[in-house]
């Protein structure tokens, strides 16, 4: 009788160790794939001249910001200060969506914060582009 219990205990222990090792290996492989690839984080993290340092800091991509604020994505492959949406358009869309999601009128704080983060992301992009010297491009027009 003790032999059967001992064998069952050994079988359970072996199963647990094998499963644990399999999960550990799978996690390591997933972590390696995510760190070596920039496409594994989000559907919205697509190349569009997106500055990854701003995206990482604010945890929202430029593409996602355009989608949230319902602003058409620039046609150009590379974003410059010249082809970013106008500050007036961005501010207008932000105000409309931010006010529509006000908690006082039954809106969602979560959606309101997403709208704010999208607005903030586009404005940070604009500030970064100006600091690079894209200001001259804007003044040429």
From TrEMBL:
Location in the cell: Mitochondrion inner membrane
Swiss-Prot/TrEMBL GO biological process terms: protein import into mitochondrial matrix
Highest taxon, organism lineage: Eukaryota
GO cellular component: TIM23 mitochondrial import inner membrane translocase complex
Membrane topology category: Peripheral membrane protein
Keyword field contains Protein transport: yes
InterPro entries the record matches: J_dom_sf (IPR036869), Tim16 (IPR005341)
Keyword Mitochondrion: yes
Keywords: Membrane, Mitochondrion, Mitochondrion inner membrane, Protein transport, Translocation, Transport
UniProt family annotation: Belongs to the TIM16/PAM16 family.
PANTHER family: MITOCHONDRIA ASSOCIATED GRANULOCYTE MACROPHAGE CSF SIGNALING MOLECULE, MITOCHONDRIAL IMPORT INNER MEMBRANE TRANSLOCASE SUBUNIT TIM16
UniProt-recorded name of the protein: Mitochondrial import inner membrane translocase subunit TIM16
Native source species: Piromyces finnis
């Amino acid at each position: 009788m003790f032999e059967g219990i001992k064998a069952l205990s050994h079988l359970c222990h072996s199963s647990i160790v094998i499963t644990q090792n399999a999960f550990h290996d799978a996690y390591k492989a997933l972590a390696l794939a995510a760190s070596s690839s920039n496409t594994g984080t989000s559907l919205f993290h697509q190349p569009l001249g997106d500055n990854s340092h701003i995206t990482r800091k604010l945890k929202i991509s430029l593409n996602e910001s355009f989608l949230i604020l319902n602003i058409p994505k620039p046609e150009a492959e590379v974003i410059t200060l010249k082809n970013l949406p106008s500050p007036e358009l961005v501010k207008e869309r932000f105000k409309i969506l931010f006010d529509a999601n006000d908690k006082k009128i039954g809106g969602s704080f979560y959606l309101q914060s997403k709208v704010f983060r999208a607005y903030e992301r586009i404005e940070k992009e604009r500030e970064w582009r100006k600091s690079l010297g894209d200001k001259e491009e804007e003044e040429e027009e």
